[in-house]
Amino acid sequence: MDTAVHSRSTRTPLIFLGLGALLFVFGSWWGLFIAPAEQYMGDVQRIMYVHVPTAWNWMLGVIFAFICAIAYLINGKPKWDARMEASVEVASLFALLLCIQGSVWAKPTWGVWWDWDPRLTSVAVLLFAFLGIIALRNFVEDPVKRAVWSSVATIIASVDLPIVYFSVKWWNSLHQQQSTPQTVSSAFHLPLRINALAVLFLMTGFIMLRTRVAAARLSEEMAPPPMVPGPAGELA
Amino acid sequence: MIAALRKELLLQWRSRAQFLAVFVFGASSLLLFSFGIGPNAEVLRQFSAGFLWLGLLLSSTLTLAESFHDEMENRALEGLLLLPSDPRALYYGKAIANWLQLTLLGSALIPVMVVLYDAGTDRIVALLGIVALGAAGLSAPGTLYAAMTAQVRGKQTLLPLLLFPLIVPALLASVKATSLVILGDPMDSLRAWVVLLASFDAIYWALCGLLYGRVIED
Q1: More confidently predicted of B129 and A174
Q2: CB-CB neighbours of A104 under 10 Å
């Protein structure tokens, strides 16, 4: 059992979280008050300053979960299982946030809450796949089985992500193509980058903290059962 | 692997009543879908491919969840693992047997669809081919997940929870290809969907075979 993960203090993740929160306030303030409003969509577009950073970091979170799953299957160290548990949960949270932010943006812009846009649909599919993995983890009591199975499921779900993306893109393009203004002018760049960094710090902090919780639970599960003190002399 | 496949097929043959029950389940779900739409023949025909695949998907969770039932009794899985054979052979034996069963189930549901939704077609061979490819997409990850979920409580919930998001591309391609066969293919895009479906199958038949050993060994 690798106790290094467990015993490390929570100072580093808290520094990350604090830094991320500060940057996030600064970047959002810039995005809300300093950056110019977008020509066609007006102030609605400002949700981009949280949405796009969330999306980028969500991708990183999924990739990290995938790496953790492979690492666990290769070397079998519990710390990779703890990291995977953390990143799967944080990636699910980010996917949920993405769906909510996307709907909030889509209603005034496109007039609908939901659109079968490939990115939106892929995020939703992966959200459900990861929720399935979290459910699987809750159902399996044996820590080794739980780690192996959820690694396998994480690998399978991550491999599915690009296939879902391209198949939905293909599927949708045969119906109608939603026009999304992709040209981001340079006036929007700075707050976007600040917030991207902010969310990256926040996510790193969350994953690190959650890893510690997972590792603590794992070491408790894998510890040998405590010796029951019997009446003196009975064993002899 | 041949031996594993033979064992699976023999067991499936002996439990034909189970297959019949699943078929009735699938057929009755096809019947229910039409109540969800209403008696509009044109709309029903248009959505018939989607209904067929949803019916097959729902039935497949029953077949797949049951497919490890025998291994779980008397710890037979551990006995199988003691045999001097590759766990991959066990996986492919089981997956091929599931694939055959789902293909048969899908083919049996086609006449029900044709009758209920007036969705006939002359291209029977193409339709059967798509059913076989789609069933392959269901059975490869389905067999792997069934191996996991059969060993835990709540398997009826867990299997669809894991399987459904995963097979979205296969479902999408199968529905699209089937409806192109039924409703006609003006833009000649059938081939593209079949290629997508076949690549999904290839990826997951390889990947799941690779990972299966880890799932049952530990």
Answers
A1: B129
A2: 14
Cβ B152 vs Cβ A143: under 8 Å: no
Q: What is the value of ipTM here, to two decimals?
A: 0.83
Between A235 and B175, where is the model more confident? B175
* CA neighbor of A99 nearest in space, from A85, A109, A114: A114
Domains and CATH numbers, chain A: 8-175+188-222 (1.20.120)
Q: Which residues of A touch B189 (CB under 8 A)?
A: 174
Chain B residues inside the 8 Å CB shell of A139:
152-154, 158
Interface touch B169/A149, C-beta < 8 Å: no
Single-letter residue type at B66: E
On whether the CB atoms of residues B30 and B51 are closer than 8 A, the answer is: yes
Distance CA B29, CA B22 (A): 11
Residue B119 is predicted with a pLDDT of 79
The 3 state secondary structure assigned to A41-73 is: CEHHHHHHHHHHHHHHHHHHHHHHHHHHHHHHH
Cα torsion angle, A59, A60, A63, A64, sign: negative
Does B169 contact A164 at a Cβ distance shorter than 8 Å? yes
Q: Which residues of A203-225 are buried (b: 16+ CB within 10 A; e: fewer)?
A: bbbbbbbbbbebbeebbeeeeee
- Cα atoms in the Cβ-side hemisphere of radius 13 Å centred on B97: 26
What is the spatial distance between Cα B77 and Cα B9, in angstroms, rounded to a whole number?
A: 17
